[in-house]
TrEMBL record:
The chain crosses the membrane at residues 21-40. Keywords: Membrane, Transmembrane, Transmembrane helix. This is Transmembrane anchor protein. It comes from the Bacteria. It comes from Grimontia celer.
């Protein structure tokens, strides 16, 4: 015995109704593809709606990150720009010699007004090579260290899009960076590190 009655022919949708429903679903899928998926995933925005909704920026960042990841996988290194910022403190020095081979990479998607802190656990005298870049806008940053009652400020910056160098720990503790996004849109910060440290972790 069946739990429900079989539908009658009159209750079944007609061919015209099926075609109409299929066309509606197809048009809806195309609209979503053009206005949402293309801008958010690939940065392609033929209608301009993605830019208004903030999706195109997200897609541009994803595309840039995918390109950089592919380049990292191929060369296992990052091309260091010649525009290296001079740093006065002796705890952070500029790159010298061959291009670094990165050990860790941290991605920070910072919403408007959001901050994030990344620290390296280092012993006194250890050195860590680093480079970070901001995609989608500039950020404020504070490079500092603390541990065992000690504290040090290496460098601070406002409206910066990148920085790089070698951090030397003057004492055992946590040494790293605090980033703050003061833009009205999301910014992606990509931090790459290598060298002498136990681990890298995001504090918050």
């Amino acid at each position: 015995m069946y739990n429900s009655d079989m539908p009658t022919r009159a209750e079944l949708p007609t061919s015209k109704q099926l075609i109409r429903s299929t066309l509606i679903a197809l048009v809806t899928a195309i609209v979503l593809l053009v206005t949402v998926i293309f801008p958010a995933e690939y940065g392609i925005d033929p209608t301009g709606i993605g830019r208004v909704l903030g999706l195109k920026e997200m897609g541009d960042i994803k595309t840039q990150l995918a390109q950089e990841a592919a380049a990292d996988k191929t060369t296992n290194s990052l091309v260091v720009t010649s525009d290296i910022k001079e740093i006065e403190t002796p705890a952070i020095t500029e790159f010298q010699g061959e291009k670094p081979v990165w050990k860790d990479r941290v991605l920070l998607a910072l919403k408007p007004g959001q901050g994030a802190e990344v620290k390296l656990m280092m012993q006194q005298g250890e050195q860590a090579t680093f480079e970070w870049k901001a995609k989608g806008g500039a950020v404020n940053f504070d490079a500092h260290g603390d541990g065992n009652g000690n504290a040090i400020s290496y460098e601070k910056g406002r409206g910066a899009i990148e920085d790089q160098g070698v951090l030397t720990a003057p004492f055992t503790g946590n040494h790293g960076w605090f980033f703050r996004n003061r833009n009205d849109h999301t910014v992606m910060v990509i931090l790459r590190t290598s060298g002498e440290y136990a681990e890298v972790r995001r504090v918050f």
